[in-house]
């Protein structure tokens, strides 16, 4: 089959706005205006052209196979060299043949539909109905290659009785490999000027709670850096012109970075937006806080500002700045974020990167900080032609695991550049209910597992619901991007990060079998230095139509561990009945905002308790039986071996 297809869906957002005033509510004019502006412009790409050198023509993946399971089909195929991902297509059948064109399977992530792995679980079809499936390789995010030969499969209807069983086996004595933690280097945040904001949202002081959320994610998850927008926005007063001459003032930048450093975090310095006095067109803005998206009117003055900022930071914070990353702009491949052409943005990148290196060539600079993995090829080709430095490649996607850009870096001569996904999440859509519930937590687990070992940072966007891109939060549960609510209550996604943080430093091999193994059911096993084990098992689908759960996708998991565990065993559960603030808020009858008593009840439940279990012990293997709903995750922890003479599991 022939044809080239889009590897992306509709990118609908993931950035900032300000409601203004005190305790802005649902009727805020600022929010309405920002929302309307965002909706009109977000789908418009700045430039859809591919890179100048073109992209490779990739053959379709070989070995496509389909395995039917209860309420799902698992597809798998062989890897294609130079592919950054794969796009799964489906067509209905008539008389055993495809009836109509193949279309990408839409799991409703709202952004990039291609996946980086060589497997895919489809739960969007009707059980018992056969479909034809075909897969294409993706060399660059805006196009895919030819579709391969199709296979036919139908998900099995659910039957009465217990859910299917998946056997998961872990060898605790295996040598293992270092466990990579892509969630730890970086997290996303509202623009840092909000740390200075004494206004309230939901009766809670914005700056104080944002700082508390950042401190919490540092303490409980081990996050090391924070990426945020708008460090050059006029609300921090970094640049103005007096009698036609530039004046730089980094006083308020110092205040916000001092607060960040006091929390044990370092900034990822996203260099943007444009100060109004330096903008060629200061009326071209985004969001209610009117971040200016214009190119500079004077390129030399822009370079002077960047050099002055970097030199000031180096003087104030010392050689610690050599460990900071400096990222150029945000999502210039969307018209909503860049009023110039692609060529002008390439000039912006080059001027900015050289200005950073003028201060100290050891400081890392990169980009393109693009939406939906765009412009990566174009930036690297530009850098090759001009000698512009690129120490890391940064980009964003939502709704799927991040693509594998390592082939692109090798192909374009940057094999050693770091890969930073400086924004990533379950949806790019503001005020989307998927953000608040348990299905987003299992999405996060699957994405982090996929990214481990192939990206340097996968930054979840964002840490707190004190976030104002399209207005301040109108209620406690409003589908906000935050991992933590206004009021400081953890959402399931935050609990998922805490589960990941409890994994050990050594990854152990896992073997799985049964209906749903290695797809619908995933596992990540680890060993701590003291011999204790932590095994994380979850049931998940990318299909957001199942965000409220599908009983037919639940699985019994029989976890067997051999070769080492000897202490007690505990399980920690995360699902709609455990750790899901939406469930608890519903039972409490929370309205837009909780009452004092409801706040107390929500805080009391803001934890995932570990519960002891009695495993089965036979033949040197410890077995734990689990019932895992969809969506759902279970962390099984085995204490270090007991001293000699103590019985296993007692």
From TrEMBL:
Keyword check for Cell membrane: no
InterPro entries listed in its UniProt record: FN3_sf, GH, GH39_cat, Glyco_hydro_39, Glycosyl_Hydrolase_39, Ig-like_fold
Domain Glycosyl hydrolases family 39 N-terminal catalytic, chain residue ranges per copy: 167-399, 416-609
Region ranges (Disordered): 1-32
Keyword field: Glycosidase, Hydrolase
Domain of life: Bacteria
Flavoprotein among keywords: no
Family under the similarity heading: Belongs to the glycosyl hydrolase 39 family.
Protein name, entry field: Xylan 1,4-beta-xylosidase
Organism (species): Micromonospora harpali
């Amino acid at each position: 089959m022939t044809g080239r297809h889009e590897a992306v869906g509709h990118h609908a957002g993931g950035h900032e706005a300000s409601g203004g005033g005190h305790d802005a509510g649902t009727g805020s004019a600022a929010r309405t205006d920002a929302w309307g502006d965002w909706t009109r412009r977000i789908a418009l790409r700045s430039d859809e052209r591919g890179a100048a050198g073109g992209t490779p023509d990739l053959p379709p993946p070989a070995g496509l196979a389909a395995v039917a399971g209860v309420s799902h089909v698992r597809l798998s195929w062989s890897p294609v060299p130079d592919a950054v991902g794969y796009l799964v297509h489906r067509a209905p059948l008539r008389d055993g043949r495809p009836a109509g064109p193949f279309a990408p399977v839409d799991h409703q992530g709202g952004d990039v539909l291609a996946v980086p792995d060589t497997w895919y679980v489809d739960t969007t079809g009707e059980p018992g109905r056969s479909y034809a499936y075909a897969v294409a390789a993706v060399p660059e995010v805006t196009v895919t290659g030819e579709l391969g030969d199709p296979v036919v499969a139908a998900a099995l209807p659910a039957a009465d009785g217990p859910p299917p069983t998946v056997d998961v086996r872990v060898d605790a004595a295996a040598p293992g490999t270092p466990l990579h933690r892509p969630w730890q280097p970086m997290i996303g945040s509202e623009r840092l000027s909000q740390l200075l904001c004494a206004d309230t949202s939901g009766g809670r002081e914005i700056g104080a709670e944002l700082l508390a959320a950042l401190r919490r994610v540092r303490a409980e998850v081990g996050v090391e850096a924070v990426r945020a927008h708008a460090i050059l926005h006029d609300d921090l007063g970094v640049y103005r012109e007096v009698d036609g001459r530039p004046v730089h003032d980094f006083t308020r930048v110092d205040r916000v970075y001092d607060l960040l450093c006091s929390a044990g975090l370092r900034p990822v310095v996203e260099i943007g937006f444009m100060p109004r006095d330096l903008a060629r067109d200061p009326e071209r803005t985004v969001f209610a806080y009117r971040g200016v998206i214009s190119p500079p009117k004077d390129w030399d003055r822009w370079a002077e500002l960047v050099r002055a900022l970097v030199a000031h930071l180096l003087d104030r914070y010392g050689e610690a700045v050599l460990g900071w990353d400096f990222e150029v702009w945000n999502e210039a491949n969307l018209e909503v974020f860049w009023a110039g052409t692609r060529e002008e943005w390439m000039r912006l990148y080059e001027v900015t990167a050289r200005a950073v290196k003028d201060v100290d060539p050891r400081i890392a600079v990169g980009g393109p900080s693009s939406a939906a993995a765009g412009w990566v090829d174009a930036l690297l080709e530009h850098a090759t032609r001009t000698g512009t430095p690129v120490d890391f490649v940064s980009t964003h996607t939502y709704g799927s695991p991040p693509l594998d850009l390592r082939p692109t870096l090798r192909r374009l001569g940057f094999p050693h550049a770091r890969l930073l996904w400086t924004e990533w999440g379950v949806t790019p859509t503001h005020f989307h209910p998927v953000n608040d519930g348990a299905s987003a937590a299992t999405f996060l687990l699957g994405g982090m597992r996929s990214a481990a070992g192939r990206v340097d940072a996968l930054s979840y966007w964002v840490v707190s619901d004190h976030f104002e891109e399209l207005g301040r939060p109108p209620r406690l549960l409003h589908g906000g991007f935050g991992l933590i609510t206004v009021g400081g209550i953890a959402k399931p996604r935050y609990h998922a990060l805490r589960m990941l943080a409890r994994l050990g430093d050594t990854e152990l091999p896992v073997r799985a079998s049964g209906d749903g193994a290695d797809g619908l059911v995933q596992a990540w096993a680890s060993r701590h230095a003291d011999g204790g084990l932590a095994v994380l098992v979850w049931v998940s689908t990318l299909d957001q139509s199942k965000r409220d759960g599908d009983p037919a996708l639940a699985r019994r998991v029989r976890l067997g561990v051999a070769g080492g565990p000897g202490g007690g065993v505990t399980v920690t559960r995360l699902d709609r009945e455990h750790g899901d603030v939406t469930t608890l808020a519903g039972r409490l009858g929370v309205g837009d905002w909780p009452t004092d008593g409801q706040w107390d009840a929500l805080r009391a439940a803001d934890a995932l308790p570990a519960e002891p279990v009695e495993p089965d012990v036979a033949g040197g293997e410890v077995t734990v039986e689990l019932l895992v709903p969809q969506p759902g995750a279970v962390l099984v922890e085995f204490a270090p071996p007991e001293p000699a003479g103590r019985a296993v599991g007692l």
